[in-house]
Structures are given as structure tokens and as C-alpha cells.
Amino acid sequence: MNTSANAMVDFELFCDTQGSWVCRVAGGEPQVGVQVVRAFPLSAPDEAISIVGPDGHETVFVARLDALDDARRAAVAQALSQREFSPVIQRIREVSSFGTPSTWQVDTDRGPTELVLKVEEDIRRLPGQRRLLITSAHGVVFDIPDRNRLDRTSRRFLERFL
User: Fold this and answer.
1) Helix/strand/coil percent split, the chain, to 5
2) Residue 99: which residues within 8 A CB-CB, separation 6 or more?
3) If residue 158 lies in a helix (H) or strand (E), which one and from where to where?
4) Per-residue pLDDT tens for 10-60?
């Protein structure tokens, strides 16, 4: 069921006892195993959100997250947070070499960890922002919301790769 961006669809979103997300549209049959995805996760994270069924088809389109009631907004936000694992780098403690590949020892909002930078192109600058996204060799995307807010040592390590 594809819905119009202008019409708010009555839906229920919840996590079942198996940990799968379930969506029921307007009292219909529940769809188990839905995914909640953002169309524009960086430029418009609270707009254009889809609930996609296990068949890959859009079940519900949410034009704006703030248009939902508290219960639905909380469920959508929880589903998104489970899907989008993006640790925030708070400090770069050590870099194995200034060439690639290199191993970085970093502190994140989820604790200390190690990442491997395969190529310099895995550090992505977002246009018009101080934000950086660093993709590790394992595919985890690390976030630096504002590189100027890092400590001096971390900025120096980064400058060698930018």
C-alpha cells in the first residue's frame, strides 16, 4: 500500500516479542519484518521516512516525523535508531600511519574502539558543513558532527588525511 505524502495514514508500529518490527495499517493485517528508512538521512533526517514491508514495497510514507503523535513518533524513532548505528567520534587517540590503510584508536559516544581506514576517500566531507563521515573497513560509518570541536591532537590527526 503506497500512500500519498499529503495524506496521513492511520498505522500502528511496534516491536514483537521476537524483536521484529510490525506495522498494521488502518486495522489491516500486521506485516512482520518491516524496516523504517530515511530518504534523506543527512540533509532532512526528520522528513520523508518510509516503512517498508518485507517484500520491499513501501507500506507507509511519513512526510514529517513531527506530524506524528507521540506514540508513533517514538516507535519510528526507536526503529530508526536500531537500524542506524553510527557512533560519534569524540577523540582520535592514535593513528598507526599517515598513509592508508591505517588503524585508528578512537573514543566514541559508545566507548573506545578501533577502526581501519582503507583509503582516504573513506573520509567524506559534507558540503557546506564541518561534519565528516568516516567509513571503516568493516562498513561502520563513524560520525564527526563538527571537526572543529575535536581536541587539538584529534584535529591534527585528521588534517593529515584531509
Assistant:
1) 20, 40, 45
2) none
3) helix 152-159
4) 999 999 988 889 999 997 999 999 999 999 887 888 999 999 999 999 999
